Amino acid sequence: MSEKPILALALSPDEKLLAFSQFSTVGIVDLETRKIRYLLTQVKGRILSLAWDPRQELIVLGTAT
Q1: One digit per residue, pLDDT tens: the chain, 65 residues?
Q2: Which of 7, 11, 21, 8 minimizes the C-alpha distance to 54?
Q3: 8 Å CB contact between 4 and 23
Q4: Cβ(61)–Cβ(26) under 8 Å?
Q5: Whole-angstrom Cα distance, residue 24 to residue 63?
Q6: Environment class of 15 (CB within 10 Å of its CB; exposed 0-12, middle 13-18, buried 19+)
């Protein structure tokens, strides 16, 4: 994880995963193991909002370009 500030957080519906954004990066942390499970980099624009779908299959990103 970088030193950049976290701009958005979203807790999954089952409360086992936490998504966070740091400018153009999104990470998904497994709260049971406390490890980053996924890391998406080079998303266009600053990611200012995150939201999980109810089935926890998708995460929506809101960006500012």
Answers
A1: 568 899 999 999 999 999 999 999 999 999 999 999 999 998 888 999 999 999 999 999 999 87
A2: 11
A3: yes
A4: yes
A5: 9
A6: exposed
